[in-house]
């Protein structure tokens, strides 16, 4: 958490190698992302990270299942296998019944659950979420957050969430605040 402009989104972008930090390094399992070429950072991001944005950022012309299957297909899985895995995950998230609707034609909450599926379908090591419930009403936001937290835990991935919402922060293990582009000291046991 932190005030607007404190660097939260930039930190997420640095962590997954979209941008490079002005100073310091980002390492994942011993690999220094900041030392890799842009192409290798992109590949690592595809393989090891899942990312959820505030408005889901799905491809509106594709169905929910096609959107959710994309990371697996980009990683070389067949369309059939990728779609089957994505469909299972959409079922778990309670949106299996709208899996074949185009992303542009479903509700915000349904789209956001599909965005969670797309972020987790390839079992990434790290899931980054930037205001994942920011565009949703309270009840739908809770459903999406519970799914994000529960499924991330079930695949053993780390989850980092940027949020302005204290209720979201209180459902996570640890709260870190930012100010002027730097982390404040962690506050242990936010839950
Ligand atoms: N490459 C970088 N390396 C280090 N720090 C950076 C880098 N790019 C941006 N920053 C920091 O991030 C700040 C910009 O913050 P950012 O836009 O990420 O805010 P935010 O906290 O996500 O705000 P909002 O809640 O409005 O989205 C810059 O002022 C700078 O301190």
Give structural notes:
The protein is an alpha/beta fold and 191 residues long. The chain has one domain: P-loop containing nucleotide triphosphate hydrolases (Rossmann fold, 3-Layer(aba) Sandwich), CATH 3.40.50.300. The chain is built from 7 helices and 7 strands. It has helices spanning 8-15, 38-48, 64-74, 79-92, 108-120, 138-154, 166-170, and strands at residues 27-28, 31-32, 49-52, 126-130, 158-162, 178-179, 182-183. The strands form 3 sheets. A 3-stranded parallel beta sheet has the order 3-4-5, with helices on both faces. Strands 1-2 form a two-stranded antiparallel ribbon. A two-stranded antiparallel sheet has the order 6-7. A hairpin with a 2-residue loop joins strand 1 (27-28) and strand 2. Helix 5 runs parallel beside helix 6. The protein is globular and about 45 Å long. It starts with 7 loop residues before the first helix and ends in an 8-residue tail after the last strand. 34% of the residues are buried. The mean pLDDT is 93. The structure holds adenosine-5'-triphosphate (ATP). Adenosine-5'-triphosphate (ATP) is lined by residues 2, 4-10, 14, 19, 21-22, 181. Adenosine-5'-triphosphate is lined by residues 2, 4-10, 14, 19, 21-22, 181. Pfam families: ABC_tran. This is ABC transporter domain-containing protein.
Give the low-pLDDT segments.
none
Structural class: alpha/beta
Strand content: 5-15%
Question: Which CATH first-tier class would you pick?
Answer: Alpha Beta
């Amino acid at each position: 958490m932190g005030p607007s402009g404190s660097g939260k989104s930039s930190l997420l972008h640095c962590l997954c190698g979209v941008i490079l930090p002005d100073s310091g390094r980002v390492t994942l399992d011993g690999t220094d992302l900041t030392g890799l070429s842009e192409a290798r950072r992109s590949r690592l991001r595809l393989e090891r990270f899942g990312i959820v944005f505030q408005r889901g950022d799905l491809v509106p012309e594709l169905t929910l299942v096609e959107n959710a299957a994309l990371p697996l297909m980009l990683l070389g899985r067949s369309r059939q296998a990728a779609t089957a895995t994505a469909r299972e995950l959409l079922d778990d998230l309670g949106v299996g019944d709208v899996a074949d609707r185009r992303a542009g034609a479903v509700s915000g909450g349904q789209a956001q659950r599909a965005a969670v599926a797309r972020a987790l379908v390839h079992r990434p090591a790290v899931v980054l979420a930037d205001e994942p419930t920011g565009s949703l009403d309270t009840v739908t936001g809770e459903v999406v957050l519970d799914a994000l937290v529960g499924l991330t835990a079930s695949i053993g991935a780390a989850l980092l969430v940027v949020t302005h919402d204290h209720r979201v922060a209180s459902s996570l293990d640890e709260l870190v605040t930012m100010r002027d582009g730097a982390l404040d000291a962690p506050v242990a046991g936010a839950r």
